[in-house]
Amino acid sequence: MIACLALATIHRGVFHYALKEEELLDFLYFPDTPFARTLRKRPRLKIFQTPLGEINRLYQQTYSLYHCEPLMDDPEDSDHIDWL
Q1: pTM (2 d.p.)
Q2: b or e along 51-76 (b: 16 or more beta carbons within 10 Å of the residue's beta carbon)?
Q3: Residue whose C-alpha is closest to residue 5's, from 33, 19, 24, 31
Q4: Comparing C-alpha atoms, which of 4, 29, 24 is closest to residue 12?
Q5: How many CB atoms lie within 10 A of CB 11?
Q6: Are the CB atoms for 48 and 9 separated by under 8 Å?
Q7: Residues 47, 54: contact at Cβ < 8 Å?
Q8: What residue segments make up the domains of the chain, in order of their start?
Q9: Residue 18 pLDDT > 80
């Protein structure tokens, strides 16, 4: 179930500009199997637990902090940081 939550949240974060779906299950494909029908009934798979854009915001923050660490050591030496 956690994997389904994570996958749907990532799909929503990436495709929310193109897709107008709002329910978590709209971002997942489940084949018609007994297991999938059981998953569809789970209350935690009805709503998103994470606000839209939160995963992307945290990723960008982590990415920036990772690449800013060399600048904190020596602010004058920015030649080796490609994204500046």
Answers
A1: 0.57
A2: eeeebeeeeeeeeeeeeeeeeeeeee
A3: 24
A4: 24
A5: 17
A6: yes
A7: no
A8: 1-51, 53-84
A9: no
Q: What is the pLDDT of residues 56-71, one digit of tens each?
A: 888 888 888 887 776 6
Q: Note every long-range contact of 17-26, with CB atoms under 8 Å and residues 24 or more positions apart, other chains counting.
A: 23/47, 24/48
Say which residue, 79 or 40, is predicted with more confidence: 40
Q: Which two three-digit tokens encode residue 5?
A: 């939550």
CA distance to 16, 49, 53, 67, per residue, from 23 (Å): 12, 11, 15, 35
Cα atoms in the 13 Å half-sphere on the side-chain side of 70: 11
CB-based contact 47:24 (threshold 8 Å): yes
**Mean pLDDT, the chain, whole residue set:** 78
